[in-house]
Amino acid sequence: MARRFFLFGLGFSGRVIARQLLHAGWQVAGSTRSGEAVDLPGVTVYPFDRGHPLPPNALDGITHVLSSVPPDDKGDPVLDAVDLSGLDWAGYLSTTGVYGDRQGEWVDEDADLRPTGDRSRRRMAAEAQWLARGAHVFRLAGIYGPGRSAMDSVRDGTARRINKPGQVFSRIHVDDIAQTVLAAMARPHPGTAYNVCDDDAAPPQDVITHACHLLGADPPPELSWQDAQRVLSPMALSFYADNKRVSNERIKRELGVVLKYPSYREGLAAMV
């Protein structure tokens, strides 16, 4: 029997997951807002958003579904449009932002959820719906990979070394997101949440400094938090509102995940 997978939201992570599924022999389809993804040969792509439903036959024969589509102010566009009953497996890409601010302390999947912003509160509500339907929820830390990393910001001159004392971020390489999703498909635990992050929650300025070292570039001047608040966008500032270290023990223990990039050091070195 053909294994058929549908990815709602073929973005940065979705594209990598789709390629790994194709390599593993899956038939893959998915969606973008435009219905186009010219860099994904072999993937059938449909347009989809809240105002543009899928064609009636788009999910015929699909056994596995993963969504990375964020909720909007009306709820989750995918759950509002799709019946998940009858699937062999379902997954949802969420964010560690649902934990909120822990002032640098550790959190695992059993921690209570304390989202601090509207976007994270919507994610928490969407998570509850997916989990109630037996989906696997993946709480992603800060995503990076080729084309979207400290290496790229150093190269294009946009890197900033912001020093907010005590601030750390957890991160995850996009390849390790893909391998965790595939591991959860091989060892399904319906209705389970997983933190997907590396082993090293680190200060953001350290990551920029290391990228500069790898590229042989001079680090940009360090910017104090007081000065940074004057120049950062509201979106960028919102990321600094939460400060926590995220445990990844569950994906290792239950799914057998061995991270390809256990810290930003290995991940950035692979991009040189």
What order do the helices and strands come in, and which of them pair?
Layout: E1 4-8, H1 12-23, E2 27-32, E3 43-47, E4 64-67, H2 77-81, E5 89-95, E6 106-107, H3 118-132, E7 136-140, E8 142-144, H4 150-155, E9 161-163, E10 171-173, H5 174-186, E11 193-196, H6 204-215, E12 222-224, H7 225-231, H8 234-239, E13 245-246, H9 249-255, H10 264-269
Parallel strand pairs: 1-2, 1-4, 2-3, 4-5, 5-7, 6-13, 7-11, 8-10, 9-12
Helix pairs in contact: 1-5
Structural class estimated from helices and strands: alpha/beta
Strand residues, percent: 15-25%
Largest sheet: 7 strands, parallel
- Given as residue ranges, the uncertain stretches (5+ residues, pLDDT < 50) are none
Helicity level, as a percent range?
25-40%
- Strand/helix succession: EHEEEHEEHEEHEEHEHEHHEHH
What is the count of DSSP helices, taking H or I runs of 4+ residues? 10
Number of DSSP strands? 13
Our Rg estimate from Cα atoms comes to 19 Å
Write structural notes for this entry:
There is one protein chain. This protein is of the alpha/beta class and 272 residues long. The chain contains ten helices and 13 strands. A seven-stranded parallel beta sheet has the order 3-2-1-4-5-7-11, with helices on both faces. Strands 6-13 form a two-stranded parallel ribbon. Helix 1 (12-23) crosses helix 5. The termini are far apart. The mean pLDDT is 96.
